Amino acid sequence: MTSRLSLQQYMEEVNAEVSDSLQHYLPKEWNVPASLDTAMSYSLMAGGKRIRPLFVIAAAESLGGSREAALPVACAVEMVHTYSLIHDDLPALDNDDLRRGKPTNHKVHGEATAILAGDGLLTHAFYSLTQATTKFHVPAEDTLAMVEELSKMAGPQGMVGGQMADMEGEQGITDLKQLKYIHLHKTGDLIVFSVKAGGRIASASLEQLHILETFGRSLGLAFQIQDDILDLVGNEEKLGKPLQSDLKMQKVTYPYFIGLEQSRAEVKRLTQLAKEAVSSGKIPYPERLLELADFLVHRDH
Amino acid sequence: MTSRLSLQQYMEEVNAEVSDSLQHYLPKEWNVPASLDTAMSYSLMAGGKRIRPLFVIAAAESLGGSREAALPVACAVEMVHTYSLIHDDLPALDNDDLRRGKPTNHKVHGEATAILAGDGLLTHAFYSLTQATTKFHVPAEDTLAMVEELSKMAGPQGMVGGQMADMEGEQGITDLKQLKYIHLHKTGDLIVFSVKAGGRIASASLEQLHILETFGRSLGLAFQIQDDILDLVGNEEKLGKPLQSDLKMQKVTYPYFIGLEQSRAEVKRLTQLAKEAVSSGKIPYPERLLELADFLVHRDH
């Protein structure tokens, strides 16, 4: 069992396994134009925190599920997250030059290749998802439910809708209701997907899926408010991007609407809500989920 | 039965049903930013020929399958096709101002929205696909096989790879081998997916799937060579775009490599190959597929 590892060790172990697995889904021998393959790998293997894959795997393991079967799902969600970063950074959208302290995809590979690399990662994510059944015998019904949920949570009603609203917000028409819509969808939906999909890998009951959804929904919002706070008062070097970029972009944030202290209190409240949900006794091994929740509130980048 | 309809009537009937169904998958009441919804609809409802949906439905019906169950799959493939056009037309890629005689998506809705509309359509295509099971009781195994195949055929190894190679070709490094790679993947793969998916809806045997693959593969290449020919000698008004844009873009084409007459002969040979495959007696009702094959060779736009 991995439960003897510290959270730090657990995160490093999972991160390494996810990276190996991602490499496996972009194999050297596949018949893909080299420039496209290179651009996809550039962002996918840039060494992020792999928070979403961690949620998939911790959720699967919280119900005694198999990490091996959860890996294709963890890879899928990381591909979707990565594609969204590549497209968000494009000149027509956020026009960012740096991501995780490295030049953004289009800065290195050009705009056209970056668009296609994003398209490729999004499409390939669904391939990776199917491998839970093809390679690891997850029932087809469960994997298809994940496909349906990912397409909703990452699509027009989910992440893409959140990104669109965020972009419109930069043009100065955001109110608190719209800000919540942006946070719930742009970041929250993919985190909800991650924990629920982990649950499905472990054949979660409907009640357990509901608990995991509450956990993901609360924590996803807390995560995004924490991001708003870090952008305001974080450590520039650790963040790998300039501080107060939201202010400079005239983007409204939680601190903008309810102040810094109130925002911190909201992060705490939502995190508590998430932790209580999985501590109800219906989730047999909630420890890693609880630790991850605390980690996200206390992170400084 | 619909077999008494002329091909023209059949195409119009299917086109109308697909358009209705597409409208159903972009419902008025869904919670999506209006600007994103409008941009997605703009291209999806622009009234193309719906060739790929026709292949899905004709293939399903060639095995006695249900049109109703094939419609979500037909919609999925049209969404993927439409997203690929939106992204291909972007300034960083082909920088086209016109598509089907109308201003391209980014010309009307702006570049950022066009990128997100494409992302939204690609993601939503997988949702549409899952509805074959959720709404029409196609076995989950079959729908999951379609998800796997669509993600391959439309992804880095398929359409996106073809698009990348095509873009590199515009920079003057294409040879005949690469041109064939481009045609097979950029256009061919999605047509192969369409006919095979139609087959799966009708519970095709492995042998029947193989026949449909041969049909789609041959016809997909013929279709693309015909496109090359039409770009050279077609009717500008009917095409809805300027003639000889390939020449102007210094894009190599089949006529460039093997001449116009040889290209026409190749279209004929490939079409014959496709028709023979489905006329082998293993496909109970091949008539519409045969008519569609002839239609594609004789089309003028």
TrEMBL record, chains A, B:
Which class of enzymes does this protein belong to? transferase
Entry keyword annotation includes Methyltransferase: no
- Which keywords does this chain's UniProt record carry? Isoprene biosynthesis, Magnesium, Metal-binding, Transferase
Give the matching InterPro entries. Answer: Isoprenoid_synthase_dom_sf (IPR008949), Polyprenyl_synt (IPR000092), Polyprenyl_synt_CS (IPR033749), Prenyl_diphosphate_synthase (IPR053378)
One annotated GO molecular function: dimethylallyltranstransferase activity
What SUPFAM superfamilies does this protein map onto?
Answer: Terpenoid synthases
Q: What is its EC number?
A: 2.5.1.1, 2.5.1.10, 2.5.1.29
- UniProt feature coiled coil, ranges: none
GTP-binding as UniProt keyword? no
Q: Which cofactor does it need?
A: Mg(2+)
Which Gene3D superfamilies does the annotation name? Farnesyl Diphosphate Synthase
Tell me which family the UniProt entry assigns to this protein. Belongs to the FPP/GGPP synthase family.
What is this protein's record name? Geranylgeranyl diphosphate synthase type II
> Which organism is the protein's source?
Paenibacillus shirakamiensis
